[in-house]
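Continuing from yesterday's entry. The apo prediction looked reasonable, so today I'm repeating it with adenosine-5'-triphosphate included to see how the binding region is handled. Same sequence as before; SMILES copied from the compound registry.
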Amino acid sequence: MATKNNRTNYCAFCGRSQNQVPELIKGPDVNICSDCVMMCNQIMDSDASPQADASERKKDGDAKSVDVTKLKIPLPHELNALLNDYIIGQTHAKKVLSVAVYNHYKRLRQGLRFENDTEFRDVEIEKSNILLVGPTGCGKTLLARTLARCLDVPFSISDATTLTEAGYVGEDVENILLRLIQAADGDVARAEIGIVYIDEIDKVGRKTENVSLTRDVSGEGVQQALLKILEGTVANVPPQGGRKHPQQEYLPINTDKILFICGGAFVGLDDIVRRRLGRQVLGFGGATADNGDEGTSTAIEPEDLLHYGLLPEFVGRLPVVSTLNPLDENDLVRVLTEPKNAMVRQYQKLMAMENVKLSFTSDALQELARKAARKKTGARALRTLIEQVMLDVMFEVPQRHDLTNFKVTRKMVCDQKATPADRSPKAA
Ligand SMILES: Nc1ncnc2c1ncn2[C@@H]1O[C@H](COP(=O)(O)OP(=O)(O)OP(=O)(O)O)[C@@H](O)[C@H]1O
Ligand SMILES: [Mg+2]
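Holo prediction written out below.
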């Protein structure tokens, strides 16, 4: 017990002495340490946040369960059509996602549909989390973002690269769920029927297949932590994100019904598949050099993912694997022009804001695609190339009131430079 005499050197909240705390702030009769000040701040912040309201509701037991009968269920072909508006190729992945999302909604309503049906009442439809595998720049993240546009359930995208095992520098796995709760405007009950996309999931693979003697902070530990939420658990989410603090009130969230979609480039996985098959395989899809078919997910086996460094339990929780194909030259031309927010359209809009009509000749588009295909970074390369070509135009145009049209030609793409001609009388 601290005596009256030495109490002057103790924090009245945590009881630690002056030399056990970073700083002790002394009041007339009482002291508080800097740690406790910070904690008080957090508590006050979380009381004011919408998440805290949600946790209050939950505690009081009046959290409304979401009325699933009111959800607008998009049919698989409708979802597919939406994805088609934005994403070129990747037919298989689009179909897998459309069906998965549709089934997700059906699963939410299964209880209602078969309430009095003895045949199906006790059959519980389980979720099938999805793994999307495909090379860089082929549209994985774009698929997730596009899905987010049209869903009636909360949808969040998280990046696995920021995650670390609890207790290390980086984000806790629970932050994935926090993001979902935020997407549901703090309504935990709604978040519990949401869909989560975890990007860059390949980055949590163990670096080697050998069991390392030292702990692998970034890889295996994160997979272990993800296992639980993928499977279905009641996770305690710190409402402020970041490190859990003993004094912080958690938001309990049940991940049973949450659908998880994971995506990753899995660089080198094609080599693993090739080694297993012992024959030439192009890309991930397993399109062999001789048949050139669009790949299907059949070529990737769970064992390949294990070789890549994913834990067996982890692979087991992602039963649906869909592969995305690398985009070829023709796809890249289409990427430039066809999607609703195609790159060409974006630049046309930029120029339209300067009252200039921008166009590309078809061989200019073809040349852009050819150059991009060589870079092997999928559609990402297109953006860099167009940006280079358009630099001078975008520099000049704002001060050139004489320009009303600008056409990008193949030569300009080859030279990586498009410069507006010298001042000419304004076209009619
Ligand atoms: N299939 C596609 N159809 C239309 N545009 C695409 C397609 N694939 C990629 N793009 C374009 O390329 C950009 C990058 O694609 P995206 O972010 O989806 O790549 P990714 O597959 O997630 O790659 P990474 O593994 O590097 O994250 C997109 O913003 C989009 O403009
Ligand atoms: Mg991505």
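Comparison notes:
- The pocket of adenosine-5'-triphosphate (ligand 1) is lined by residues 87-90, 134, 136-142, 265, 327, 335, 339, 378-380 (CB under 6 Å).
- The first strand starts at residue 24 and ends at 26.
Will overlay with the apo model tomorrow.
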